[in-house]
Backbone:
């Protein structure tokens, strides 16, 4: 009787002893990653992923699928904090990645991990006007006239729209020799001339080119050129203002997610590939201005000259700009005229 009880007890303890002796199996490396990106980058990353996936397999022997999520980057950042498991972000505004840093999702040193402060290409706000440019729009001054109606995304939800607001404000500061009150009035008039505030850049493009709202679409130069090319029958014209604001496109690994999923290596490889000759060429073909000098030289004829000012030079950096303009009850809230 005692022997049978001992056998039963031994049988019950055996799995526990075995599990303690054998280390837990390592989680399988993911076969897919998610890139959370800005709204107008759909076609760009479709082209990039179509080349990266076979390149990654040829290099590592492993299959990988890069899935995409697109929206205004401020919305994307909030979605990640709320549970969207994006392995990487490819945004159009530094402050939205900083939001993820502040929430513990991205490491503080993210800008030192990749070349050019982790920005593989750049653009700036430019204008798309209707055939023949009937309102004779040439510069930011023309956008505050009473007879000119505008379309650009909501600066409260879109990095794209925020860049337009910042670029206009920077232009006004220069025009009025730093007179902030006059710059405020200029920005408020610009915002009041907007006929529709879509939540993201692609929605704004759709409102202008398909719904035929407004006289001028303001969005990144890459989207302006792409829209002109896609709707050739409408004879839109691209207007590059003499001066605009540098728009960087920062990228980062979402550390909290990749550590959970075991996807750090492939996520890092993906972002690194954006700086390769092939990645830079695809970005330039999609009308972005790239940082690789040789690739940029090949595509220089497709881009008009422009003088670009920087947030650091005009506003003292993103931190100061954020605190002055984009916090609750900041400058944007004071000047914003919602539709």
Residues:
């Amino acid at each position: 009787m005692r022997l049978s009880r001992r056998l039963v007890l031994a049988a019950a303890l055996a799995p526990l002893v075995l599990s303690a002796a054998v280390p837990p199996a390592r989680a399988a490396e993911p076969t897919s990653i998610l890139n959370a990106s800005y709204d107008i980058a759909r076609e760009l990353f479709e082209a990039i992923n179509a080349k990266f996936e076979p390149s990654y397999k040829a290099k590592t022997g492993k299959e990988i699928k890069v899935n995409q999520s697109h929206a205004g980057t401020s919305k994307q950042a909030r979605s990640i904090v709320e549970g969207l498991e994006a392995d990487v972000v490819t945004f159009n505004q530094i402050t939205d990645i900083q939001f993820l840093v502040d929430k513990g999702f991205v490491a503080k040193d993210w800008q030192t991990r990749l070349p050019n402060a982790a920005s593989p290409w750049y653009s700036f706000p430019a204008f798309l006007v209707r055939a023949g440019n009937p309102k004779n729009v040439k510069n930011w001054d023309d956008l505050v006239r009473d007879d000119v109606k505008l379309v650009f995304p909501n600066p409260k939800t879109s990095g794209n729209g925020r860049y337009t607001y910042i670029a206009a404000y920077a232009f006004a500061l220069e025009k009025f020799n730093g007179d902030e009150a006059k710059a405020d009035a200029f920005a408020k008039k610009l915002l009041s001339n907007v006929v529709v505030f879509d939540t993201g850049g692609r929605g704004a493009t759709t409102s202008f080119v398909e719904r035929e709202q407004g006289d001028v679409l303001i969005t990144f130069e890459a989207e302006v050129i792409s829209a002109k090319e896609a709707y050739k029958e409408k004879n839109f014209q691209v207007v590059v203002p003499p001066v605009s604001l540098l728009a960087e496109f920062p990228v980062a690994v979402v550390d909290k997610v990749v550590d959970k999923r075991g996807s750090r290596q492939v996520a890092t490889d993906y972002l690194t590939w954006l700086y390769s000759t092939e990645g830079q060429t695809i970005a330039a073909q999609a009308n972005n201005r790239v940082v690789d000098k040789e690739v940029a030289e090949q595509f220089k004829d497709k881009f008009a000259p422009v003088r670009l000012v920087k947030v650091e030079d005009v506003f003292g950096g993103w931190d100061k700009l954020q605190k002055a303009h984009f916090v609750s009850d900041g400058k944007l809230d004071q000047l914003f005229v919602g539709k």
